[in-house]
Design goal:
This protein has about 170 residues and is mainly β. The protein is built from 1 helix and 10 strands. A hairpin with a 2-residue loop joins strand 1 (about 25-35) and strand 2. The protein binds copper (II) ion (CU) and zinc ion.
Length: about 170
């Protein structure tokens, strides 16, 4: 034990200043806001090589709404352009139905039935919340819900219209 710690220290000198003191966070949450008011929440958790997502949103009219993880954890209203483009660690095209896709942040449309909270529960395969190519990096990440359905194909944003709801992801253990 003592031996391997000494080795690790020697190996890391100068190069490992960013190694965390404790285990990396395995979860993240977001408060979803619309026009400055909270309308729901989301929780992400690392599940092996995948990330599980659950989300709930109040007040949406019946319909389908494009939903993505965006690159920057900044929700400046009213257009939420501050969240940047879809998170795209693999440098691919947009769309879950695109042969050249998809972005790491592409999610299925959120389906709402008026009068009830809209909920989503699913997984994104082969993404990491943290680490070298992780979702939540120095400038964070956000979840965005759009005014229209995502067509699953049109690069770079699925033709899903304005950004109406935004939530900044915050890491948690
Ligand atoms: Cu989006
Ligand atoms: Zn996309």
């Amino acid at each position: 034990m003592r031996h391997s710690m000494t080795f690790a220290l020697a190996f890391c000198l100068g190069a490992c200043s960013s190694i965390p003191e404790s285990a990396p966070p395995t979860g993240a949450t977001a408060i979803l806001q619309r026009g400055g008011a909270p309308v729901g929440g989301a929780a992400l958790s690392q599940n092996g090589a995948d990330v599980a997502i659950t989300l709930t949103v109040d007040g949406l009219a019946s319909g389908e709404y494009g939903m993505h993880l965006h690159q920057i954890g900044k929700c400046d209203g009213p257009d939420y352009k501050s969240a940047g483009p879809h998170w795209n660690p693999g440098n691919r095209q947009h769309g879950l139905n695109n042969p050249q896709g998809a972005h790491g942040g592409d999610l299925p449309n959120l389906v709402a039935v008026g009068g009830r909270p809209a909920t989503y529960s699913g997984q994104i395969a082969s993404i990491m919340l943290t680490g070298p190519s992780g979702l939540i990096d120095g400038d964070g990440a956000a979840i965005i819900i759009h005014a229209k359905a995502d067509d699953g194909l049109t690069d770079p944003s699925g033709n899903s219209g304005d950004r109406i709801i935004c939530g900044m992801l915050t890491l948690e253990n």
